[in-house]
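Write out the bound-state structure for guanosine-5'-triphosphate.
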Amino acid sequence: MHVQDAEIVMSAVDPKQYPGTGFPEIALAGRSNVGKSSFINKLINRKALARTSSKPGKTQTLNFYLINNFFYFVDVPGYGYAKVSKTERAKWGRMMETYFTQRDQMKHVFLVVDFRHEPTIDDIQMKDFIEYYDIPYTVVATKADKIPRGKWNQHFYQIKKALNLPSDESLILFSSETGEGFDKAWKLIEDILED
Ligand code: GTP
Ligand code: MG
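---
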């Protein structure tokens, strides 16, 4: 897909604030600082439409990015950041649960994990949550540029195994630095939006 037009239309915390236009939505999920917002920026070829930071906790709300007046990427705040109060964590949980379990036009989740490391307990819980609610998903292992190519296979299968993924197609290797996985991700998005 050639992205001609990408704009943020809403930062929402509450369902009343979700866009009412009915376009399909593709949502991100993943640990804080793993690279969710960077993934969106890479795919839409914008350096900083989705705000990123080297410090975890940059994205705080559900951010709806309208692409080509056709579908939304929904960027979300990450989990697993230690310096978050209990109250904030509970607020995050409610916001995410409401969105993920009640949003009909949400068609697919990209669960972003760090290609360098074993998935965390939080990653596994997030994946279980997504499966429990029967939400179609694909895992994106990002920051591939930080691992030498000779080790890619080993990391790929470690992550696949740790998350107990059904097939090789359930895991996309990605890098927002080099564009690795760009074509695969777009091909998948086009398939999702065709259905
Ligand atoms: P929160 O909004 O806090 O949940 O984080 P996020 O998941 O949106 O992460 P973000 O995209 O803000 O990226 C976090 C940091 O990782 C930034 O410093 C990015 O530049 C860096 N980063 C993201 N993707 C990649 C990648 O593929 N390769 C490398 N080398 N760095 C990356
Ligand atoms: Mg972010």
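---
The chain has one domain: 6-194.
Residues 30, 32-38, 52-54, 56-59, 77-78, 142-143, 145-146, 175-177 surround guanosine-5'-triphosphate (ligand 1) (CB under 6 Å).
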